Amino acid sequence: MQTFLVIGALMLLSTFTVNFYRTNLDQTSFSYRNEATVTGSGIGQSLIEEISNKAFDETTVLAPVRSADSLTSAFSLGRDGSETTSNTFDDVDDYNTYVRAMPTARLGDFNVKVSVYYVNQSDFTSSLSQTFSKQVDVCVFNSYMNDTLRISSIISY
């Protein structure tokens, strides 16, 4: 009889122990996901601010323009000539197709990808012709995140 009570007690103890560690593991994973989301948001927002501090377009770096037709073609958005790193970028659309790995001590690398495209000023849908507004999409991903974080901003001239 006592053997059955001991076996029952051990089974009960092992069930409690497994549930305790499972709950602890779930809370730790949840904590890392939240931390990665907050860190990724900061990285994305920081890059949006870096981009928005640049000139609107290559044609506006040195002088203002009056016509949207004077701006870079929608099919030519991206780096110009010798612009190879973000330190040499001088306008917003130089960041189009830009990819960066942002290392962190605690959560490893955050991978960042940028897309830049013209948008219509009336409804902010994408446009294949030049306008005085560009949308910047910064996508951030980390192995601790369940999904890619997308931060968007519209920059107007």
Give an overview of the whole structure.
The protein is an alpha+beta fold and 157 residues long. The protein is built from one helix and four strands, in the order αββββ. It has one helix spanning 2-52, and strands spanning 99-104, 108-118, 133-141, 149-156. A four-stranded antiparallel β-sheet has the order 1-2-3-4, covered by helices on one side. A hairpin with a 3-residue loop joins strand 1 and strand 2 (108-118). The longest helix is centred in the N-terminal third of the chain and has 51 residues, at 2-52. It is elongated, with a radius of gyration of 25 Å. The termini are far apart.
Oligomer status: single chain
End-to-end C-alpha gap: 85 Å
Helix content: 25-40%
Q: Can you summarize the main beta sheet?
A: 4 strands, antiparallel
Binned strand content? 15-25%
Give the low-pLDDT segments: none
The spatial strand order of the largest sheet comes to: 1-2-3-4
Could you state the order of secondary-structure elements as H and E? HEEEE
Strand tally: 4
Classification by helices and strands = alpha+beta
Q: How many whole angstroms does the radius of gyration measure?
A: 25 Å
How much is the average pLDDT? 89
Shape, please? elongated
Count of helical stretches: 1
